[in-house]
Amino acid sequence: MYGKAFAPEYQGALTSLSVNSSLTDVLAAGRERLAAAERAGQRIEAARSGLAVAEAHRRLGQVGEADRAWKASYRAAREAGDTGAMAWALWSGGTLARQRGAFALAWRLLGYAAELGERGGDVVVRGYSLAGLAETGRIQGDYEAVGRLHERLLAEARRRGEARHTVWALEGIAQMHRNTGSYDTAYALFEEAAGIAARADDRRGHAWALRGLADLRSVRDGDVAGALALLSEAEESCRAMNLAGALAYNHKMRGNVLYRAGRYTEARDVYRQALAEFRAIGEPRGEALSRLGLAKSLARLGRDRAGTAAELADLARTMDRIGLRHAREMVTRAQEEFVGADAAAAAAVPAGAASPADTTPPARSAAPAGTALPTGTAPALGSPASGEGPASSVSPEVVR
């Protein structure tokens, strides 16, 4: 039996905020409470209200503001000696790093967050941080390594009756099954996630589950109308809560559905819309996937072979640089389809290779469940003016 979904990242004086609160409302309330806490010299309250500010900025796609906010929250928590608040700030920073495509940094910050959560006895932030590690590995395509962790976290969430985390774990496992061709299993898991989310009033989780169901209605059943209807329903929730990232992924999926249906002109237009949305929020993974869909649509609409080949070759390098294994395989299949197997092989870039201009930290392979988390002192952040980042564990270019 699951209770109503709640948002543990809304803390201190902000616990009354709902998991479904509009992010603009969360941001306004968080800023107001943060300013009051800073005036009163209440470091713990500043750390916890600052977390809500960081998360609102992140989910609105305001990357720079989110980056500054989670670091300020961490500094306030560290000054107050609040281990739990430090862990939550690091979780926010690690989640932002993954959103930005900085997977190596995401692994470090989420690992520290899980360690601090365990040390401080905060089972919720520990669970969220381990979930973040699992999702990072899944996004990179390391299914074998993180599949067991997803299953373990699902069992823990079910045992505690945590609807929101159960939905997250079900959706992650479902996505891995979908990507490996187990469509019926994936559909059943997405369907269960949608049901739990609906009963728990978790609109965000429900929207993501509907997106997964729409994908499978399209790819498995060829049900274009049904898939588009599910995406339209999910879009309502995304817009109501101002979920910029989820809305962009919803539009990208709409492009996928239209493309599979042979409606290439419509798909092209939707992919362009999604691409602009991802660029506006600084989300490199979504941007790359939208570029791939757009390239394939343009090829179907008569783009010259040389232009398609150049675009796909650049996308292959981008996927390798970011560290997206499954997406890289999708590019290879597109190259074989539109350019030819020989050209695709010639354009292949060894895994981990980077272009000279690349400044993204190399992707770290996912650690299997049970692997020891990072140990040692939690990182110390420099002052905003200094431009310093966490002590030696964090690369300067991603904390400036």
Quick tags:
400 residues, mainly alpha
Describe the structure.
Residues 349-377 and 380-400 have low confidence and may be disordered. The chain is mainly alpha-helical and 400 residues long. Helices cover 71% and strands 0% of the residues. It starts with 22 loop residues before the first helix and ends in a 53-residue tail after the last helix. It is globular and about 65 Å long. It has helices at 23-39, 43-59, 63-80, 83-99, 103-120, 123-140, 143-160, 163-179, 183-200, 203-219, 224-240, 244-260, 264-281, 284-300, 305-322, 325-338, 341-347.
Quick structural gist:
This protein is an all-alpha fold and 400 residues long. It is built from 17 helices and no strands.
Summed over residues and divided by their number, the pLDDT gives a mean of 87
- The number of strands is 0
Please report the distance between the alpha carbons of the first and last residues: 45 Å
Low-confidence stretches are 349-377, 380-400
Write the layout of secondary structure elements.
Layout: H1 23-39, H2 43-59, H3 63-80, H4 83-99, H5 103-120, H6 123-140, H7 143-160, H8 163-179, H9 183-200, H10 203-219, H11 224-240, H12 244-260, H13 264-281, H14 284-300, H15 305-322, H16 325-338, H17 341-347
Helix pairs in contact: 1-2, 2-3, 2-4, 3-4, 4-5, 4-6, 5-6, 6-7, 6-8, 7-8, 8-9, 8-10, 9-10, 10-11, 10-12, 11-12, 12-13, 12-14, 13-14, 14-15, 14-16, 15-16, 16-17
